[in-house]
Amino acid sequence: MTPTETRRRELPFWLIAAILLAIAFGLVIGADASYRVIFRAVASGIWVTVFVTVIAYAFACLIGLGIASAGLSRHRLLREVATFYVEIIRGVPVLVLLFYMAFVAAPVMVAAWNLVTAPLQAVGLIEPASIRDFDLLWRAVVALVISYSAFLSEIFRAGLQSVDRGQIEAAKALGLSRFKVFRLIVLPQAFRTVLPPLGNDFVAMIKDSSLVSVLGVQDVTQLGKVYSSGTFLFFETYNVVAYVYLLMTVSLSLAVRGLERRLQRHRDFIGDRR
């Protein structure tokens, strides 16, 4: 039996302990009135956390794939621009990027919009935009998209480069266009390779989404901060906040691990057939 098979058959004691701890704390929330009130107050921000995470991650994936494709382009200019973007954005902390997007880039974008649409504003077709029109929630989403797209582009780049060059050359020899080669040959195989790390980064974004609370976005962290500052129940409140995040992240981590095992079994099956 290989070490990998041994690990698969091991009883996950850590998971049993985590489940028992989650059940125990859930019973505490159900039995204690103060914990129930805190949970209801904090849980109302879960949808904001999920919304920010899903929207930001979806756009980050699209932009990251485009940057990865540009980084592997035959044109040097595209490669240099993609490398510049990745290196600069990865060097800026997410929190700093949030502040920069909220208080520096957003006013510039609004001013640029007013400048471009000035003729339409002059005839009364549209109203001048105000910085208040750019909601803080969307500023946070844009900041997360920019930050994570740089990291995801490296995952996509590694996945694209993992595809066997022989298959690409064979597809070209059969007369497939570059777009069809990418869509039918490269992308499906690269997607299977990058899916597990993409899942891990999705879990990481759920945790990093808590940073949007610094802008006053009413997510789980912000609601917990507001409630604890008003009641001084810091211990109880942040226990609940941590519990909510752990439920989301551990559940998704288990799903990612299950997906990895399924993909590995699929690869092993294909390898045995060959």
TrEMBL record:
Q: What is the top-level taxon of the source organism?
A: Bacteria
Q: Which residues cross the membrane?
A: 12-31, 37-70, 91-116, 240-259
Ranges of residues in domain ABC transmembrane type-1: 46-256
- Gene Ontology MF annotations: transmembrane transporter activity
| Primary localisation category | membrane
GO terms in the biological process aspect are: amino acid transport
Q: What keywords are annotated for this sequence in UniProt?
A: Amino-acid transport, Cell membrane, Membrane, Transmembrane, Transmembrane helix, Transport
Keyword Cell membrane found: yes
Keyword flag Transmembrane: yes
Under Pfam families, the record lists: BPD_transp_1 (PF00528)
* Cell compartment(s), UniProt: Cell inner membrane; Cell membrane
As for family, the record states: Belongs to the binding-protein-dependent transport system permease family. HisMQ subfamily.
Task: Please give the function described in this protein's UniProt entry.
Answer: Part of the binding-protein-dependent transport system for glutamine; probably responsible for the translocation of the substrate across the membrane.
Q: Which PANTHER family match?
A: GLUTAMINE TRANSPORT SYSTEM PERMEASE PROTEIN GLNP (PTHR30614:SF20), MEMBRANE COMPONENT OF AMINO ACID ABC TRANSPORTER (PTHR30614)
**What is this protein identified as?**
Polar amino acid ABC transporter, inner membrane subunit
**What is the organism field in this record?**
uncultured Pleomorphomonas sp
